[in-house]
Every structure is written in structure tokens, then in C-alpha cells.
Task: structure prediction
Amino acid sequence: MHFLLIYELSPDYLERRGQYRNEHLQLGWDACARGEMVMAGAMSDPFDMAALMFSCESADTVERWAQADPYVKHGLVTKYQVRQWNTAIGESAFNPIRP
Result:
């Protein structure tokens, strides 16, 4: 299944992320290597949200990842939600539906 982890970022996210960025990036690349995370990144103009896409069996995997993320632990993420994403279009869709 696909899941989206949606972050709401603190107003001082850009100023504070440097001290936690390497640990955050390593956590993400490790999840990619395990086949759990597909891609991730912050939204810009303004930098107030981020979206992380996962491909895994359960939302629990995504929740555990978020709880381990230093951005969450240190308050750079003010709120997050995990949502199952029912992908229907594209080569990587879990439930491809064609016309």
C-alpha cells in the first residue's frame, strides 16, 4: 500500500533544521534502502509543509518512522498525519485503474 506522511512545519523550521538534518536524511535514506520510503521533501514558498511517500504494508511502519524522526522529536514538525493513499494512476500505482 501507499501512505503519505504529511508534516506541518514550525515557523522557524529553516533556521533550526541544520542541526538535525543529517540524522533526518540518514533515517530517510535508510527507509528508502529497505523499500519503505519512496520519496520525500519539503514544500516551498512557504516552507510550511512536507510530504513523505511510503510503500509498505501498514501505517504502523510510517508512524514508527515519524516517531524516530529528529524533526518530530525536536519540534520542527508541529503536527503530522499518516494517510493511506489509494493510488490508481501510474506504473507504480497499487490499484491501477485504466479507462
